[in-house]
């Protein structure tokens, strides 16, 4: 990131805490962990133009609820947490993109990342696409997470996880609606993330309902970006999802017994083998070549076969 400045500007106000710093000579990131911050409204304006599927969307009230947990859940589960919203703006103050994420410290030993990031939402405004901004935003998210968690900046970078739409599980109507609304085809989107280092976790991920009026979402892929090695430490993934489910998804509520989150955490706790990471590119090539996909119930299943067959 050319022109990056090492110092951080921390602004304190009665109802607001912000972190901001220059990314390049003409780009700046501004983030906040406060539900009363104007950063949230600036982030939400662009977010609202990027996400449409009913069970993946978080409403403004949901973002406020998550940010409000920065006090009570700062040290939950024996880990340190920080939920933030962030925007990237140009020299004129125009918002070019944004992100919402949960950063969590992880203590799985020196050979594993010291923290994890659940990249809940990220977008680049349509007029700003094609300039490499998504990669810049990801770099900014990692830097913000390190600052918010007070990491020392040495060693491995935080593990970065993201949900992706599964094109093989979307209905034709969902596929068309999301593509039209976001301006990016589902397969093209996966190809973009693959170029950024994303790989699919070979794990049957389901997002619990974001609110009482929404449903669980089993039409998602869970991916890791630039994760070291061929698999994700199962304990790291357990701790990451435990924090993510409770804070970003359930908004601090305790799930009922035998719930969707608990079932996934239980499965991760039962085995010690790493969760395999699957390449995205072979499956994308498979679909683009017009090869049949009917026998696969998910993109994850296709990725496992396409990777073997090259």
Keywords:
single chain, 310 residues, alpha+beta, Aminopeptidase, 34% helix, 24% strand, disordered N terminus
- According to CATH, the fold-level topology is Aminopeptidase
How far is the N terminus from the C terminus?
A: 34 Å
The major sheet is characterized as:
11 strands, mixed
How much beta, percentage-wise? 15-25%
Runs in which pLDDT lies below 50 for 5 or more consecutive residues are 1-8, 10-16
For this structure, what is the CATH homologous superfamily?
Answer: Gcn5-related N-acetyltransferase (GNAT)
- Inertia-based shape: globular
* Average of per-residue pLDDT values: 92
Count the domains: 1
How are the strands ordered across the major sheet? 1-2-3-4-5-6-7-9-8-11-10
Explain this structure.
The structure is a single chain. With 310 residues, the protein is an alpha+beta fold. The protein has a single domain, classed as Gcn5-related N-acetyltransferase (GNAT) (Aminopeptidase), CATH 3.40.630.30. It has helices at residues 38-47, 60-72, 133-149, 172-182, 186-195, 234-249, 260-269, 281-288, 299-309; strands at 9-13, 16-24, 27-32, 81-90, 95-105, 115-124, 159-165, 198-201, 220-225, 231-232, 275-279. An 11-stranded mixed β-sheet has the order 1-2-3-4-5-6-7-9-8-11-10, with helices on both faces. Helix 3 (133-149) links the parallel strand 6 (115-124) and strand 7. Helix 5 (186-195) runs antiparallel to helix 8 (281-288), helix 6 packs antiparallel against helix 7 (260-269) and helix 8 crosses helix 9. The protein is globular and about 50 Å long.
């Amino acid at each position: 990131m050319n022109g990056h400045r090492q110092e951080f500007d921390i602004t304190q106000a009665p109802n607001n805490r912000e972190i901001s710093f220059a990314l390049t000579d003409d780009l700046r990131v501004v983030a906040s962990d406060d539900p009363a911050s104007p950063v949230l409204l600036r982030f939400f304006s662009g977010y609202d133009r990027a996400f449409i599927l009913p069970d993946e969307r978080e409403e403004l009230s949901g973002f406020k609820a998550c940010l409000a947990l920065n006090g009570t859940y700062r040290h939950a589960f024996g880990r340190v947490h920080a939920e933030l919203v962030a925007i990237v703006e140009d020299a004129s103050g125009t918002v070019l993109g944004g992100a919402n994420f949960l950063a969590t410290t992880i203590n799985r030993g020196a050979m594993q990342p010291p923290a994890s990031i659940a990249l809940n939402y990220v977008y680049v405004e349509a007029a700003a696409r094609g300039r490499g901004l998504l990669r810049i935003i990801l770099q900014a998210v990692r830097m913000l997470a390190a600052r918010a968690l007070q990491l020392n900046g040495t060693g491995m970078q935080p593990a970065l996880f993201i949900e992706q739409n599964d094109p093989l599980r979307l209905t034709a109507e969902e596929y068309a609606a999301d593509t039209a609304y976001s301006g990016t085809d589902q397969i093209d989107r996966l190809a973009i993330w693959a170029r950024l280092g994303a790989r699919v976790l070979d794990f049957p991920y389901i997002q619990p309902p974001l609110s009482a009026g929404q449903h669980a979402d089993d039409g998602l892929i869970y991916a890791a970006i630039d994760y070291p090695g061929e698999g994700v430490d199962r304990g790291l993934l357990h701790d990451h999802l435990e924090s993510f489910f409770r804070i970003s998804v359930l908004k601090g509520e305790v799930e009922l017994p035998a719930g969707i989150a608990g079932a996934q955490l239980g499965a991760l706790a039962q085995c010690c083998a790493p969760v395999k990471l699957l390449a995205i590119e072979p499956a994308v090539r498979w679909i683009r070549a017009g090869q049949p996909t009917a026998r696969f119930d998910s993109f994850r299943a296709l990725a496992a076969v396409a990777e073997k067959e090259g």
